Amino acid sequence: MNKIYQKSFPGGKNAGFTLIELLVVVLIIGILSAIALPQYENAVEKSRAAEAIMTLKALRDQQAFCLLEHPDGDGCMQGDEGNNLFSSANIALQSTHSPMCDYGTTAGPATKNFEYWADGQYIMAIRRPCNKYTLETTAYQSNYADASVNNIVCGNDSEASKDWCKILGF
Q1: Closest Cα to residue 96, out of 126, 59, 54, 137?
Q2: DSSP assignment of 99-166, as one string?
Q3: What is the pTM assigned to this prediction?
Q4: % the chain with pLDDT above 70
Q5: Residue ranges per domain, the chain?
Q6: Residues 19-32: what's their mean pLDDT?
């Protein structure tokens, strides 16, 4: 006579998971992902800001070199297409003609995450989309006595958005 062997637990139950056990596992995974995803978003944003800070410092240094070559400041700020700080900078910025942010000045080059522009007082990185935050450094040709060329300043653009500057450590 053939016997059918079944794996069973004490009490005669067949092997398997109950619906309650599966729901508990799904609940635990949901709680862990609810904690992990915001932390991941913050870490990614910190790396994007670090990239913008490095680019701002490189633009600031490029402007200093330009001012040594051209004491009158010609071509050392944002200006005409062929003669400006961005065209003379040896930095991989992709030029764009469709700016997403309007700060009352000519749009500068942009990357996927930031738009850059320079004027007589600041060199800025504006986070796309525009309601997040800006990073800025004082330009070398600034005439403001209280301005420091070694600082990067963060500013939130919207009261409704997260306090990105605090998250980024500013």
Answers
A1: 126
A2: -S---SS----B-SSEEEEE-SSEEEEEETTTTSEEEEEE-TT---TT--TT-EEEEES-SSS--HHH
A3: 0.68
A4: 61
A5: 19-167
A6: 94
